[in-house]
Amino acid sequence: MEKTMRIDEIPTPAYVVDEGKLIQNLEILKGVQEWTGCRILLAQKAFSMFSEYPLIGKYLSGTTASGLFEARLGHEEMGKENHIFSPAYREGEIDEIAGICDHVVFNSFSQLRRFREYCQGRTSIGLRVNPECSTQGDLAIYDPCAPGSRLGITFGEFQRELRKDPDVLKNVDGLHFHTLCEQNSDDLETTLDAVERRFGPYLKQMKWLNMGGGHHITREDYDLECLERCIRHMQKTYDVEVYLEPGEAVALNAGYLVTEVLDVVKNGITTLILDTSAACHMPDVLEMPYRPPLFESGKPGEKRYNYRLSSCTCLAGDIIGDYSFDREIQPGDRLYFEDMAIYSMVKNNTFNGMALPSIWVMKPEEETLRGECRLVRAFGYEDFKGRLS
Questions:
Q1: Phi then psi for 50, rounded to 5 degrees?
Q2: Which residues contact 287 (CB under 8 A, 6 or more apart)?
Q3: For strand 62-65 and strand 39-43, is the pairing parallel, antiparallel, or unpaired?
Q4: Is the Cβ–Cβ distance between 291 and 86 less than 8 Å?
Q5: Per-residue pLDDT reduced to its tens digit, 18-52
Q6: Using CA atoms, how far apart are residues 135 and 386, in angstroms rounded to an integer?
């Protein structure tokens, strides 16, 4: 029998995916496919909640993976187009990858030469290129075009390889680039200009072009008309099938992390100790870093009561951020972090023996945080122990 509860009743910590918002995002992405004829894939590195793959598969063309396990997940749980890119493949995995993936994208000519024979006649072969066009400002950690990047083949390297072996592109069907991170379509337009200037002549030999991920297509201010113009331009100019593989856009703003306040500590700053953790349950807070949105809260000083939100781990820097509230917060109160479907479940860990948050789905509901929730998966001690030896 399914276990269902209201969101204010479920055990914490818990991830809750808002199925109504997920469907809204998927409708937008489906519209882009229908208007342009492009194909959109779910980048599983951002959102791998495979219990939702049957729903996602009704809207999108398939999945894309960063390694064998993600490729297997997409193959088994969605069963539509299945693509993969990895900076390098293992000898012992490439045969299985070629057997379950429709597109295999290589990061270098050396990998292409080493593994081409496994793929020919079984899957479509692609190469990732680096257009050397940075549009991300200061986010160097997420910039595949940063100086010295290991991701993608530069134009200079492309030309050197062709001079050595004019037939090196034989059986290569497509080019792939991925340069964006949470960006609008004007940055895609800038990037495409660089791609065309450098790789345009080679695109004319290709069957497909994969524009990668980082497209924030479902964000309110996203310029869909510019995106459609970009897609149609590449289709018309080079006669290629165009792929996009967003991850965040699929589940953007479609999830919550529900947590309970365990204690209040005062030492110059008033800190709320939560039963969740930035380090364990939302690592991007520390890696990017960024301050996650929190339901019914404000920036520091914006509202009457100000708090620093932290965790019950022993890591001194396990701090989520500073927030303000209209009311005083007490132990036992619940807080709802927003936009927690993406890069949360896929990156969490059990440092300090922290429990993994349970996973729930909230039924579509017009009122925010009022839908009935269905338990998808709960975790316990054995999940912690099973990762150790």
A1: -70, -15
A2: 141
A3: parallel
A4: no
A5: 999 999 999 999 999 999 999 999 999 999 999 99
A6: 41
